Amino acid sequence: MTDPRKTALVIGASRTLGLGLAAAYLRRGWDVIGTVRGSRRTGLHDLAETSGGRLTVESLEMTDPEQISALRDRLAGRTLDLLFVNAAITRGDIPIGEVPTDMFTEVMVTNALSPMRVVESLRPLVAPTGTIGVMSSDQGSITLNTEGGQDLYRASKSALNQLMRSYAARHAEDDRKLLLVDPGWVRTELGGPDAELSVEESIPGVVETIERHREPGLHFVDYQGQVVPW
Question: Please, which residues have CB within 8 angstroms of residue 9's CB and are 6 or more apart in sequence?
Fold first, then answer.
């Protein structure tokens, strides 16, 4: 009897890093569920057409709690070996004193609050020894912030890290692996054209880092498997 295929759910998989993750897990023989915002066609739909039915596309606006609940209901009965939340926005390098309140709220809700809502809501679908991962950034490290800049984005990632730490403390007896992953400085819309890495250079390391971690509890690591200081 062959072992059943593993299943990964990638939240935010329409392009760049999320799409790369979906493709990487398909290459590893996994079944993949990937989410996109809205109904427009994306690279994930193209990938699904060549997946032989192993990739399912779901619609999710992560900032809408009702849509998170609806996704959980649609996936009821599925067991996830990996839940990975990949979503973030930036609104430019603006000193924090000049950031409008609505912009602050938008970035914090998207980058910190919404990923945690996904984790809290979909946790019951993750296998008891499965993995819950969230895309973070070394810009969320307070220790490494020696130059400033990108105040709001940094703060949102620091908030995400802190919320994941609180989540891990509340579920200290849980055998699931919890990962905050820094993908490196990647050439995406968020990372910009001058970034050091391509998606193709970052994602294999991200996947290897996820797969190497076998110990329960929370770990803050980069795409090379190195521990990132808090």
Answer: 32, 33, 34, 35, 75, 80, 82, 83, 84, 122, 125
Q: Rounded to whole angstroms, how far apart are CA atoms 11 and 107?
A: 17
Number of H helices, E strands in the chain: 7, 7
* Spatial contact of 75 and 123, defined as CB atoms under 8 Å apart: no
Distance CA 114, CA 92 (A): 20
* 143-178 per-residue burial string, b: 16 or more CB within 10 A, e: under 16: eebeeeebbbbbbbbbbbbebbeebbeebeebebbb
Encode pLDDT of 132-173 as tens digits. 999 999 999 999 999 999 999 999 999 999 999 999 999 999
DSSP letters spanning 168-188: HHHTTT--SEEEEEE--SB-S
Is the pLDDT assigned to residue 187 strictly greater than 90?
Answer: no
Written as six digits, the tokens of 183 are 């993908």
Rounded to 5°, the CA angle 189-191-194 comes to 105
Closest CA to 204 of 178, 230, 186, 177: 186
CB 23 within 8 A of CB 30: no
* Structure token digits, residue 72: 């959980």
Paired tokens of 161: 């890290």
